[in-house]
Amino acid sequence: MEGISVILTQLSPGLAAGLLVLTAAIGYLLGNCNGAVMASKLLFHDDVRTHGSGNGGLTNFHRTYGGRWVTIMVIAVDMLKVVASVVIAKVIFAHVMPHGYVPLFVTYWAGIFTVVGHVFPFALKFHGGKGILAGGTLALLVDWRVAVCAWGCFLIGVLLTRWVSMGSLLAATAFGVSSALFHPVPSIAIPALLAGALIDWKHKENFKRILAGTESQLTFHKAHPPEEDLPEPEDPEESPEDEEVPAPAMETVHVELTRPAPAAAEAPAPAEEIAAEEWKGGQHWDQVDAWLEDHPGGKGEETE
User: Fold this and answer.
1) pLDDT confidence of residue 278
2) Does the structure show a pLDDT above 80 at 134?
3) Least C-beta-crowded within 10 Å: which of 23, 112, 129, 242?
4) Mean pLDDT rounded to a whole number for the chain
């Protein structure tokens, strides 16, 4: 007895319906706590959904920011919310069920609604992750055989192809199929198959890129916030002598050219001075002699 029939037979219809709605709501609300989005906003003041594939999940977070410890923090948040949802649901039903017995259906019920909250979070405008980590955590909580099938297929897919999406597609399918095989109860098998199909549907674009051979492969790198203009690393082989030194900026020099003032013209000498100079130079002696010859009376008498 592990299906919903145990709850319906042991509790009144109203109480059973109320508890199912309550635990589903708690699981969905906890699923809204998206580790990748929270870490990108708190640590990097950014939104992981604006980078890469636009998905608010672990893989896109690691490709965008990298880093061991921040990735571990995202994993912890996405796994713990599933654990918290299942634990709360079990505690609630344990208090009302006879002898405290809680069927396995409750674990699937609370966990699947947590996956739905992670994929379609109303707090993030229904733009969340793809649910593979939340679904993998649920597999660990329901049955170790289901966990081995789901996680085994994930690891095989990633190791063989280095495509996380390939491992996710295989794991989601394995979760639904193995749950139906090991727990052939309609109230468990049908929700598990639907949850696996939901996760596969969220990876439809990845599947298209896999077929086209353009899907990104898993890489490991150190943490750094995404910057649009990161400085280029310096080449250690390039010596400072080889670097071009930019020419200094030319300064504009304003030179004022002034035409020298013309020399002051010398004032013309008086006529008497000109005459005296010319007289001293003997330039007019011929004229004097000619005048004396014409005026003999003009000669003075000789004295002894």
Assistant:
1) 54
2) yes
3) 242
4) 82
**Residue 65 DSSP one-character state:** T
Helices (H), the chain: 4-10, 13-31, 35-44, 58-64, 68-96, 104-119, 132-142, 144-161, 164-182, 186-202, 204-212, 271-280, 285-294
SS3 127: coil
Instruction: Please give the DSSP secondary-structure letter assigned to residue 53.
Output: T
Report the C-alpha gap between 118 and 5 in whole angstroms.
28
**pLDDT number for residue 119:** 96
> Is 198 within 8 Å of 129 (Cβ atoms)?
no
Tokens (6 digits) for 20: 């199912």
- Kindly report the backbone phi and psi dihedral angles of residue 4, in degrees, each rounded to the nearest multiple of 5, phi listed first: -70, -20
Is the C-alpha dihedral spanning 49, 53, 56, 57 positive or negative?
A: negative
Window from 40-54, 74-88, 127-141 with minimum mean pLDDT? 40-54
Q: Which residues contact 19 (CB under 8 A, 6 or more apart)?
A: 7, 11, 92, 93, 96
Rounded CA separation 78/219 (Å): 21
Angle between helical axes of 104-119 and 68-96 (0-180°, round to 10): 140
In Å, the largest CA–CA distance within the chain is 184
* CA gap 285, 39 in Å, rounded: 123
DSSP 8-state assignment for residue 300: P
The count of C-alpha atoms lying within 13 angstroms of the C-alpha of 165, restricted to the half-sphere facing its C-beta, is 22
Give the DSSP H or E segment for 222: none
